[in-house]
Amino acid sequence: MNKWHSPKIRSSEITPEAAYLNRRQFMQGAAVVTAGALLAACAPKADPTPIPTEAAALQGQTDELGGALTPYEAVTGYNNYYEFTTDKEGVAPMAKDFKTRPWTVEVSGLVGKPRTYDIDELMKRFPIEERIYRLRCVEAWSMVIPWRGFALNQLLKEVEPTGAAKYVHFVSILDPKQMPGQNSPFYTWPYSEGLRLDEAMHDLTLMSTGLYGKDLLPQNGAPLRVVVPWKYGFKSAKGIVKIELVAEQPRTLWSDAAPNEYGFYSNVNPDVSHPRWSQASERRIGESGRRPTLMFNGYADQVASLYTGMDLQANY
Ligand code: MTE
After folding, report:
1. C-beta separation of 197 from 168 below 8 A
2. Atom of ligand 1 nearest to the CA of 91
3. Which of 70, 96, 166, 247 is deepest in the core (most CB within 10 A)?
4. Ligand 1 pocket, 233 CB below 6 A?
């Protein structure tokens, strides 16, 4: 048994003190402290999700930089999903009965062949790959997660973006009955995020349907989320129901809430501090100490060319 089996892990034990304090400041800054505190106080604590045999079989694997996989219990028990609660350990128990069927995903906007997919059809449509990616949260913690999914570019090619399409807007589900956090007036629900079309077409950009060898659990964004490993984790929207190709840079939940803090690009960049904390280092969940944060989260070789000529201090 490892320490993640303890049902009594407090956030302060998982998160370094500094990041934990940062989270509190982060919430205050976003003017959500009242709603956030209320929601957090209501959240039941979870027993850790039992480890499936598929996950146990992956023990010992690492990312391409030698980073060990983050324990399953942390990946599925310590989550950001504001539609449920701002309490990271409260998400899993609150999301337990979230209905992920029936579910459709509309792919529309500036495309030649708009289409609405049933999720079960979509999950079988493209070859499913297993990819180990680092996820670096803007709150200065990170995980190494074995994802399952398919490259988004396959789906985008199928709907044939027109020449006018320049950005992709990801829209998460709006369902305040199932997601009590959506009753908070502080955010512009539904959650939404965006990428430039070339970022969305990049081979690293994954539509994830699973992790640790199994379909996604609700807390990780079931049945479908995007994963953009070189950007802060908030770009990786969960519970996606719509993917819209658009001409202009789309608005997002975080750019509405605090545009001076959460820029559209949000590339992981140790040289650009968040206005209220440094991004130079991070705590890898499950490890002690901190490690330096890498430019583009360690994916610079693959993605730096997307930003040639751009001032990444201005376009944070
Ligand atoms: N997607 C939605 N719809 N709602 C959210 O609150 N949080 C984001 C991102 N996607 C979020 C979301 C943030 S801040 C992070 S760090 C990652 O999800 C966390 O993903 P994980 O819980 O699977 O590790």
Report:
1. yes
2. 22
3. 70
4. yes
Query: Which two tokens mark 304?
Result: 């730096």
What residue ranges define each of the domains in the chain, with the CATH number in brackets?
A: 14-307 (3.90.420.10)
Cα angle value 66/72/73 (rounded, 5°): 130
In the predicted model, is pLDDT for residue 21 greater than 70?
no
Return all residues near 309 (Cβ < 8 A) that are at least 6 apart.
Answer: none
Q: Which two tokens stand for residue 79?
A: 């989550």
Indicate the DSSP class of residue 62: B
Could you give the residue ranges of the DSSP H alpha helices within the chain? 11-14, 17-29, 33-42, 53-56, 72-77, 91-95, 119-125, 152-159, 197-201, 253-257, 300-303
Span 259-288, pLDDT tens digits = 999 999 999 999 999 999 999 999 999 999
Does residue 142 have its Cβ closer than 6 Å to ligand 1? no
Q: Whose CA is nearest to atom 12 of ligand 1?
A: 237
- For a mutational test of ligand 1's pocket, the pick from 76, 87, 238, i.e. the residue with the most ligand atoms closer than 8 A to its C-beta, is 238
Amino acid at 133: Y
The token pair at 180 is 């009590």
Q: Is the CB of 238 under 6 A from ligand 1?
A: yes
Which residue, chain included where needed, has tokens 């992709």? 168
Residue to probe by mutation, ligand 1, list 144, 187, 234, most atoms within 8 Å of CB: 234
Q: In sequence order, what are the residues at sequence separation of 6 or more whose Cβ sits closer than 8 angstroms to the Cβ of residue 160? A: 111, 112, 113
Is residue 240 within 8 A of residue 172, CB to CB? The reply is: yes
